Amino acid sequence: MKKPENRKWEVLSSRYVVKEPWCTVRGDHVRLPNGMEFPSFYVYEFYNWVNVIAITKDGDFVMISQYRHGLRETRYELVAGSCDKADESPLEAAQRELLEETGYGNGHWTPFLTMAPNSACQNNLAFTFLAEGVERIDTQHLESSEDIQVHLLSEDEVYELLVTEEIIQALMSAPLWKYFATRRPRH
Amino acid sequence: MKKPENRKWEVLSSRYVVKEPWCTVRGDHVRLPNGMEFPSFYVYEFYNWVNVIAITKDGDFVMISQYRHGLRETRYELVAGSCDKADESPLEAAQRELLEETGYGNGHWTPFLTMAPNSACQNNLAFTFLAEGVERIDTQHLESSEDIQVHLLSEDEVYELLVTEEIIQALMSAPLWKYFATRRPRH
Question: Looking at this predicted complex, what is its ipTM?
Answer without folding.
Answer: 0.95
